[in-house]
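Please, structure for the following, as tokens.
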Amino acid sequence: MSTREPLLKVVGFTKSFGSKVVHQGLDFDLYPREVVSLIGGSGSGKSVLLRAMIGLEAPDSGRIYFKGVDVSDFSERQWRDVRLNIAYAFQGGALFDSMTVEENILYPLDAHTKLSRKEKQEKIDEILELLGLKGANELFPSDLSGGMQKRAGLARALILDPEVILYDEPTAGLDPFNTKNIQDIICDLKAQGRAGILVTHDMPTVFATSERMALLLGGKIAVSGRVEDLREGNDLVRSFITGEMAYGTTQQ
């Protein structure tokens, strides 16, 4: 991987909220065509890091690069262009309750493309079929199960063909069938060339989808590497997997 340039790179990232220090000198990178899982205890700042990668949280210090460009000080207008290439799949789906599934997915197409209505419809139907939601166009979020809401939110995130997808707890609260469905979707998207960062506590999903994992501890990446190497061969990761890690004494 050292011969390739990272798609996303975070260097020396620090972030505090009042007296609470969340990140202190964090370094992280994501390369093309890979999924990296970001693991760590509740409150360790995993979602804060994801939000910073699309300009929803500004670092107190440190830099964020996308495709070699320093985006740390971008204006909101500049960030809007970056967000066309970095999609955020929110934990709860983040659908507009008053809109149908189709209207939710149509929204970014209307805002950011000049496609004809027929071309938009074709893209919507294609993405719904890809995510196992064929025929759900006219349903409202309240009509959907939890798993369907997550897939509908993912459909909206994917509709502009982003290069990077940020998955925030995509399997939280799902049954085994829907969890496997989401795992398969992440792997299919990776096979299509889309890189991803997966924030999760679901270690089977880490093992099923990711080449690398990074453990967030004490405001920094405590360890990172190939999943197959860290799964059994690293004491910190093993402690996290078995639930033996004492977060309260180590995190800020």
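The CA atoms of residues 167 and 198 lie 5 Å apart. DSSP finds nine helices and ten strands in the chain.
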